[in-house]
Design a protein that fits this description.
Strand order of the largest sheet: 2-3-1-4-5
Shape: globular
Strand content: 5-15%
Structural class: alpha/beta
Oligomer: single chain
Mean pLDDT: 82
Low-confidence stretches: 1-15
Number of helices: 11
Order of helices and strands: HHHEHEHHHEHEHHEH
Length: about 230
C-alpha cells in the first residue's frame, strides 16, 4: 500500500521530510543488498570533484577521462537515472529533492555510487573514478566515511572555482539548449547556490585542512582549465 501511495504525486506533496528520508533510506538498503561491492575486487581510487552549479565539473571530467583514463561518475546523473528508471519506486521522491535544490539523503547516493563503481570495475577493469558533485554536505561526508571510507582510496578533491553570475549564465544557457534538467532555471539555481554556500563550502574547507584540495580556475575556457 505504501509503495502505491509513493507513486501518487498528490500524496507525495503531503509527505513529511522525515518520512521521505525513511523511504529513500529503505531504498538504499534494498539496493545495497543487491549491488554491494565485491571485496575481492581492487579498492577503487577516488577523486571527488566539487564546485558551484555551472562551474564546468561535467565538461572537465570528460576531458580528464580522455587524458588520464579515469571513469567519470556524476552523483547527480546517477540520481536522475534512478528517478527516470521505469518502475522506480522512489523516482518522484528523488525528483522532489532535486527540483527544490535539496540534497538527496546520503544512503541513496552512496548505494548508487557503490553499484556504479562495482559494475565498472567488473566490466572494464578500471578502478580510478572521478566522483562529480559529491560529497556536498556534512551528511554526505559522514555517510561516505561510514559506508565507503574503508572500501575506497581517496586521492584528492578537485575544486572548480567560478563566480556565481558566470555559473548562473552557463546553467540558463544549458537549459535553453535543451539540457532537460528540471533544475536549470533561476528559481532552482537560487536554491542550489544557497545550498552550495551553506553546505558544500564547509566540506571543501574540511578537505583543505587535510591538504587534499586542488583548485582549478573555472573562468578560463574549457581547454585551458586542465
Amino acid at each position: 500500500m505504501l509503495d502505491n501511495l509513493v507513486r501518487i504525486s498528490s500524496v507525495l506533496g503531503r509527505l513529511s521530510h522525515k518520512r521521505q528520508v525513511r523511504l529513500l533510506t529503505r531504498f538504499a538498503a534494498k539496493y545495497s543488498e543487491k549491488h554491494c561491492i565485491n571485496m575481492s575486487l581492487p579498492k577503487p581510487n577516488i577523486v571527488f570533484v566539487l564546485g558551484a552549479p555551472g562551474s564546468g565539473k561535467g565538461t572537465q571530467c570528460e576531458k580528464i577521462v580522455k587524458k588520464f583514463g579515469y571513469v567519470h561518475l556524476s552523483a547527480g546523473d546517477l540520481l536522475r537515472e534512478e528517478r527516470n528508471r521505469e518502475g522506480s519506486e522512489y523516482g518522484e521522491l528523488i525528483e522532489n529533492y532535486i527540483r527544490n535544490g535539496k540534497i538527496v539523503p546520503v544512503d541513496v547516493t552512496c548505494a548508487l555510487l557503490e553499484n556504479a563503481m562495482n559494475q565498472n570495475i567488473k566490466v572494464s577493469g578500471k578502478d580510478s573514478f572521478l566522483i562529480d558533485g559529491f560529497p556536498r554536505n556534512q551528511d554526505n561526508l559522514d555517510g561516505w566515511n561510514r559506508r565507503m571510507a574503508e572500501k575506497a582510496n581517496l586521492k584528492f578533491v578537485l575544486v572548480f572555482k567560478c563566480p556565481e553570475d558566470a555559473c548562473v549564465e552557463r546553467c540558463i544557457n544549458r537549459g535553453k539548449s535543451g539540457s532537460n534538467r528540471s533544475d536549470d532555471n533561476i528559481e532552482s539555481l537560487k536554491k542550489r547556490f544557497v545550498t552550495f554556500t551553506n553546505d558544500s563550502l564547509p566540506i571543501i574547507n574540511h578537505y583543505k585542512e587535510q591538504n587534499l584540495v586542488r583548485e582549478v580556475d573555472a573562468t578560463k575556457s574549457p581547454d585551458e582549465r586542465i
